[in-house]
């Protein structure tokens, strides 16, 4: 492993020069420390790095440029919908009326924000065919938890307490079984059919008086629409269970398929994916949930309501006793919700074009790779917004694995696709181009993948040693995950930034 490269730089502590930062920050009044209670005073000043302003700014700006970002290049990370984030949304989210509003502001002075949230709920309900929406959950995973807790509350409200199981297909995102477990259920894994779809017969066999819910991702994490979804949902409801839809793949069905109308009882939206908030760094996001009639009483508290005089207010404590309660503070991650609102309004009635273009881009890439033949394309039928490719044949021929191909893509200036997920496909690459990429970008990406396969045959060590040009070379990912070393310690012992 090598962690040196031309563009990596020492940390600020290592660049510190005593006295360098002096004079720029106004000195506090002489008696400032007298006003701090003595038990709150440090024995010695903290060893902060001392640098001047340009050094600090350049340090951080240079660091920021070590990252691959959707603003600098193609980011086909499957299941994540890394579309370009319009700058208009950033403008809207930074408007002082939204960004500067105190979360505890009384409803009378928060009317604009409350109206936006109220209208966004209505838009998401329209898009999903659901009866109502709560914007509160902080991310998709928390939306799942919210949905399953509502399903639990529903069964309990009917005195139906024997339902202990949640059925989840084996291609599901890891958050689905995690959610079921956190909500106190037992996860029952159901195998997929050979065509990649939900195995309706296996589901039917697993359904019974113990089934509380079924969690389905449609289109699935293989990028395939479930052709037998209607049949599956009827079977779920006949068994007295409810159907949860993981809506992370909504980008593939906008204006084309409404989960609520199809019969799903509850779903979450990954607003930061479908409706464009920068989310490569892990948040904040938003995971609103939509519900049909059955779960309406259980929606989290507080909802945003419109009064008959047209004003908006939050539900008062205790106003709706059937609610499962609060999932997080306040009404949700409002900045992310403003971006979603701006994105939806900017597309207006042409929102379905997003899906049309995303699906076209994915099928184009899939067909280009299928025609070349260097990679296996396991599912032949047309995909939705993403598709699975696999390096199984390439590995058998050359020893080069999906991980190597992914690392080599970095040298070509691309972010790698999602790898080794879904778990049901050997040497998987899950590729999601999104609607925002040009034909030229798609062609360049396909050409890079094809060239990497050619390299694997002629000089595999180039691929297995990749990335060759990145500032950080191949990392030991297992050690990084098991023994993460996240803290810098001074090499010289001269300065101790914080006590051990
Ligand atoms: C992203 C994703 C999730 C989890 O969503 P977060 O917003 O990251 O919590 C769940 N299911 C699928 C299929 C996803 O792609």
How does this model look, in words?
- The protein has 500 residues and is α/β, with parallel strands linked by helices.
- The chain has 3 domains: 32 residues, no CATH class; 263 residues, Type I PLP-dependent aspartate aminotransferase-like (Major domain) (Aspartate Aminotransferase, domain 2); 125 residues, Aspartate Aminotransferase, domain 1 (Alpha-Beta Complex).
- It is 36% helix and 10% strand.
- The protein contains 18 helices and 12 strands.
- It has a 7-stranded mixed sheet with strand order 1-7-6-5-4-2-3, sandwiched between helices. It has a 3-stranded antiparallel sheet with strand order 10-12-11, with helices on one face. A two-stranded antiparallel ribbon has the order 8-9.
- Strand 4, helix 9 and strand 5 form a beta-alpha-beta unit.
- It is globular.
- The chain starts with 11 loop residues before the first helix and ends in an 18-residue tail after the last helix.
- The N terminus and C terminus are likely disordered.
- The structure holds pyridoxal-5'-phosphate (PLP).
- Pyridoxal-5'-phosphate (PLP) binds next to helix 6.
